[in-house]
Recover the amino acids of this structure.
């Protein structure tokens, strides 16, 4: 049996990198930076006194706007390491020699980062000298998979220098402005000095210290840093820490409300190197009101180095960072009530989501959350202390019922708003309150029976009403209720509301669409309930029940029906408004009879 080795088409590999793995050629700067940092880390591990005697650094030189060199004073490479790590795709100098695992101290992991340089240059030239070798070497790699290696006659300092010459069409990626911008983009918080020399000036690009290392107790410094990074003002900020993944950073509270569906983009660093500025999934879903900058030391990046693997560590980090934010808000609620109220005024929707997700947060926030009711806007605390049954319904039912509840001084809560119903039910469970939906509450409790004499008097009127409203598929009843100035009250349960919506869509739909909707409506036809309740306390109704002209009654009843729809906030269908106008015109032309 013969054994064969896989062959790698380097040109095809580079095409995969540029078209599928990396989002842009500018990631070559990120790969050069991380290789330089990893080399310095490796030298620190090999020479314990290295940082104290000779600070690790990266020097970037740009010549003629087309030639670029990255030079670090890290551990360097021996001749054998050059053959092993530069010529074997997927091999990495960051692996433990015995276990083969990537050491956690290093940023790079996959042994393919250097190939990204072929996206901007047709040649990669490396000059390197290991701290374990007195001789230096020059390696020249080509995108066709060939390379040459030569020993250098002159003595060079320990470390590695990578030189690139822009290929046609890639000149802008090696310009001074672009290189500086990309270094600041990817390496702003790297712990080693990054010095840039453009032939005229030499300057350090990154700051001396990380903002959360020395400024974690200086909120003004953290706020200024957030303003610089995100180019916007913030309401407040809170330091973030997670033992899992060795994560640290800052969360900034947005000064404006955001939709619950909007996911914030966070700046995420891995070992001080920017991983992504569009980071998602690093905070709990409820934390939509913050943007954060975090640096992780021990989370596992994806191959493209533009995110983290979704594993148990990342889930634990999300929980720990969420706890940092929640704990800060808990403390704010107790110690800074004005700041907490300002936060609540802006971010109540997000807080509602938080309260649903976490028991402790529910108890913290529920008394501060507001609900729309027939007695005005009320907080959770006011509802708890109201000593009234907490009746609730959706937005459309609220429009129907609120006029009755308001006039009778009864409490009805509009749960048509996001999370309101879940919060209200949870409030009932936690505090032992009487919480019921209108569906399980007899609406007729708001309406009172008429006496026997009035019931007999109303029989002809109700008979006329049944005939007049037969085509509108609603039952008719005579009741007495407050407010007396309301001649009738039209009520549809949830199934009837849905059927009305379907019918309205069928009025304007095509034949195929109408057929589909018709089949769907059949499922609810037998379960729906719609009733118009006439009010015997109303002067108009009391007068109408005494009329004997059934034709006139029918016209007036249809007018009252349409008027009741408008009062209840229903969308008119089948030209219902036009029907009312025709009935009014008929009454005017025929004259209004006034039988007593």
């Amino acid at each position: 049996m013969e054994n064969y080795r896989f062959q790698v088409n380097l040109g095809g590999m580079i095409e995969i990198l540029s078209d599928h793995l990396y989002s842009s050629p500018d990631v070559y700067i990120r790969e050069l930076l991380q290789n330089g940092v990893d080399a310095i880390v490796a030298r620190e591990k090999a020479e314990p006194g290295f940082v104290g005697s000779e600070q690790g650094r990266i020097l970037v030189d740009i010549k003629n706007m087309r030639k670029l060199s990255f030079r670090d004073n890290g551990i360097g490479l021996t001749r054998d390491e050059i053959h092993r790590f530069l010529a074997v795709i997927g091999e990495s100098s960051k692996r433990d020699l015995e276990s083969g695992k990537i050491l956690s101290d290093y940023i790079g992991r996959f042994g393919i980062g250097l190939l990204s340089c072929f996206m901007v240059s047709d040649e990669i030239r490396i000059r390197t000298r290991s701290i374990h070798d007195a001789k230096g070497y020059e390696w020249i790699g080509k995108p066709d998979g060939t390379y040459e290696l030569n020993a250098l006659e002159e003595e060079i300092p320990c470390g590695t220098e990578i030189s690139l010459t822009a290929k046609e069409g890639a000149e802008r990626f090696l310009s001074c402005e672009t290189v500086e911008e990309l270094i600041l983009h990817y390496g702003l918080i790297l712990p080693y000095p990054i010095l840039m020399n453009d032939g005229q000036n030499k300057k350090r690009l990154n700051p001396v210290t990380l903002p959360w290392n020395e400024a974690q107790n200086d909120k003004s410094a953290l706020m200024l840093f957030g303003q610089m990074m995100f180019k916007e003002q913030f309401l407040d900020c809170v330091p973030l820490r997670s033992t899992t993944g060795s994560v640290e950073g800052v969360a900034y509270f947005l000064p404006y409300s955001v939709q619950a569906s909007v996911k914030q983009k966070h700046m995420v660093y891995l070992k001080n190197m920017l991983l992504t500025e569009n980071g998602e999934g690093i905070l709990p879903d409820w934390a939509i009101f913050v943007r954060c900058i975090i640096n992780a030391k021990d989370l596992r990046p994806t191959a493209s180095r533009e995110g983290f693997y979704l594993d148990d560590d990342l889930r634990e980090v999300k929980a720990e960072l969420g706890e940092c934010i929640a704990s800060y808000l808990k403390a704010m609620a107790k110690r800074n009530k004005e700041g907490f109220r300002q936060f609540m005024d802006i971010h109540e929707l997000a807080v509602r989501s938080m309260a649903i997700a976490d028991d402790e947060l529910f108890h913290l926030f529920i008394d501060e959350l507001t609900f729309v009711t027939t007695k005005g806007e009320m907080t959770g605390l006011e509802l708890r202390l109201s000593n009234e049954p907490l009746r609730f319904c959706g937005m459309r039912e609220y429009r129907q019922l609120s006029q009755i509840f308001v006039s009778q001084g009864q409490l009805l809560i509009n749960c048509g708003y996001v999370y309101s119903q879940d919060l209200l039910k949870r409030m009932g469970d936690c505090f032992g309150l009487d919480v019921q939906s209108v569906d399980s509450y007899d609406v007729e409790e708001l309406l009172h029976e008429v006496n026997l004499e009035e019931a007999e008097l109303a029989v002809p009127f109700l008979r006329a009403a049944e005939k007049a409203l037969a085509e509108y598929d609603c039952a008719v009843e005579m009741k007495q209720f407050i407010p007396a100035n309301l001649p009738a009250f039209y009520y549809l349960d949830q199934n009837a509301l849905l059927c009305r919506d379907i019918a309205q869509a069928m009025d304007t739909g095509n034949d195929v669409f109408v057929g589909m909707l018709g089949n769907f409506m059949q499922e609810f036809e037998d379960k729906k309930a719609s009733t118009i309740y006439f009010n015997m306390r109303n002067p108009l109704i009391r007068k109408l029940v005494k009329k004997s002209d059934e034709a006139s009654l029918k016209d007036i009843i249809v007018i009252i029906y349409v008027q009741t729809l408008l009062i209840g906030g229903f969308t008119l269908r089948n030209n219902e408004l036009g029907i009312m106008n025709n009935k009014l015109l008929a009454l005017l032309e025929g004259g209004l009879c006034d039988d007593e």
